[in-house]
Design a protein that fits this description.
Structural class: alpha/beta
CATH topology of the largest domain: Rossmann fold
Number of domains: 2
CATH superfamily of the largest domain: NAD(P)-binding Rossmann-like Domain
Order of helices and strands: EHEHEHEHEHHEHEEHEHEHEEHE
Number of helices: 11
Number of strands: 13
Helix content: 25-40%
Mean pLDDT: 96
Shape: elongated
Strand order of the largest sheet: 8-7-6-9-10-11-12
Distance between the termini: 18 Å
CATH class of the largest domain: Alpha Beta
Largest sheet: 7 strands, parallel
């Protein structure tokens, strides 16, 4: 089967050992620019049997699948599938795989960094010290506080373990309750009311879009911190800006947004109680290589007739 990489920009696959392993075993059609349109994506994939999808900006719509009848596998680098019409994939006979768990440690560590940066007001204080000031005042201590984990996948579980390790009480809500996970499970509203930090670890889907809206944010404590390293649209961004502006919650640490890159002058950029990073929580050399390698291994498993890490299949 013809293997196509339609969207490696900025390049992460090409410089990797995973790419060397891939090209050593197969001929690859490689593109180091974004398609930019549905028509251009179809043009690149028309004869493809297998696709390695790098960027979520490449939208695999029903029209894309229908226009590429030879396509049998989309191997995603990453866990998110919000750029793939999964029903259309199944209908058109396409298997979709992803790379779960490989970035869990990196993203959980980043969630910790965002939480502490907000609680300790590090960006603001750093800026003042650089200007020759010597600010004084209280910042928040996390030991003894309550960490609420929304979603107990690999990342949520890892951050829950980190929270427990630094002395936080951990409570959690999950769509798939399992007593064996070892964390106290509570109803979502109770979690929002009780938590000093609420950290979001859900996949984006029709069910989770706008999952935390004005009502849910209104349940949080006035000094509570929201951390989101999952997907921007899971939280109602307008409602969050409003809550932060009016100081109805203490702050937010965000790695994801409704529109990415975050537009210049966006309301979030003007808030001193928000710490912002550029959807980079999972981008470490270790996580990057592991994820790319798994996306390649998913190809060999599929071709061997034993597909692994399957999201959907015909």
């Amino acid at each position: 089967m013809k293997i196509v990489v339609p969207d490696d920009y900025p390049a992460v696959l090409a410089p990797s050992q995973a790419y060397l392993n891939l090209t050593a075993r197969a001929a690859i059609e490689y593109h180091d620019s974004l398609p930019g349109s549905e028509e251009r994506l179809i043009e690149r994939l028309r004869d493809a049997g297998i696709v390695v999808n790098i960027r979520s900006s490449s939208k695999f719509t029903p029209r894309v699948f229908e226009a590429c009848p030879q396509l049998k596998l989309v191997s995603i680098w990453g866990t998110g599938t919000d750029n793939i019409d999964l029903e259309a994939a199944v209908r058109c006979g396409v298997t979709v795989t992803n790379t779960p768990g490989v970035s869990a440690v990196s993203i959980a560590e980043h969630s910790l960094a965002l939480m502490l940066a907000v609680a300790r007001q590090i960006p603001r204080i750093d800026g003042q010290v650089r200007k020759g000031e010597w600010p004084r005042g209280f910042v928040a201590q996390m030991y003894g506080k309550t960490l609420g984990i929304v979603g107990l996948g690999a990342i949520g579980r890892r951050f829950a373990e980190i929270g427990r390790a630094i002395g936080m009480r951990v409570i959690a809500w999950t769509m798939h309750p399992n007593a064996a996970l070892g964390f106290e499970l509570v109803e979502l509203d109770d979690l929002l009311r009780a938590s000093d930090v609420v950290s979001v670890h859900l996949r984006l889907s029709d069910r989770t879009r706008g999952f935390l809206g004005r009502r849910e944010l209104g349940l949080m404590k006035p000094a509570a911190i929201l951390v989101n390293t999952a997907r921007g649209p899971i939280v109602d961004e307008a409602a969050l800006v409003e809550a932060l502006t009016d100081r109805r919650i203490g702050g937010a640490g965000l790695d994801v947004y409704d529109v990415e890159p975050l537009p210049a002058g966006h309301p979030l950029t003007r808030l001193d109680n928000a710490v912002l990073t550029p959807h980079s929580a999972g981008v470490t050399p270790e996580a990057l290589e592991a994820g790319l390698q798994l996306s390649v291994e998913n190809i060999w498993s599929f071709l061997a007739g034993t597909p692994a890490n399957v999201v959907v299949k015909p």
